[in-house]
Amino acid sequence: MAGPAYRSAVDRLVTALGRLPGIGAKSADRLAHHLLKCPDAEALELAEAIRAAKERIRLCQVCFHLTDADEPLCDICRDPRRDPSIVCVVEQSRDLITLEKSRAWTGLYHVLLGRLAPLSGIGPDSLTIDALAARVAAGQIREIVMATNPNLEGDGTALLIAERLGPFNVQITRLARGLASGGTLEFANRDMLADAFSGRQPL
Known about the structure:
- This protein is 45% helix and 14% strand.
- The protein is built from 8 helices and 7 strands.
- The protein has helices spanning 2-18, 25-37, 40-56, 75-78, 93-102, 129-137, 152-164, 190-198, and strands at residues 57-59, 66-68, 83-90, 107-111, 143-146, 171-174, 201-202.
- The protein has a 5-stranded mixed beta sheet. It has a two-stranded antiparallel ribbon with strand order 1-2.
- α1 packs across α2.
């Protein structure tokens, strides 16, 4: 009876790992067997890190970046050295983190929590566009910098946002095409990002 139970537990682990982005069936199988072979403390540390992150991490009430559960605003929104009149719009928090590494941006951010993808059922209501419009309507923002990924879905998202913000008195720019078309911010280096910020163009 132990055989089927053992196989079921391994299959469940492989299936769970296979749901992670960028992890195919073979990678999931390798990771599962690594976790089974490694010391218990190492595997349980990973499980505890996942549990703690799920319990402790929330979304910033203003920009939707990641923040601690005890802090309604993220570190960036709380930073008094940031310029609140310029806001960079990104698709995901990982894009924000990538841009921060360039040290080229001194304004605030707005995280959309995705991008338009009609074939996947992701429309405007699935994103934080309404919250962005509300921030702009408050009147403190003078420029929105669109930093959605330079591909078809990212460009479509940027154009929709530009239309939504059209009635407001705010300048809308887009990162310069120092970023490769069809690529993602995640793989851009520091110099490329710095050039993209300094050479941004009207949308």
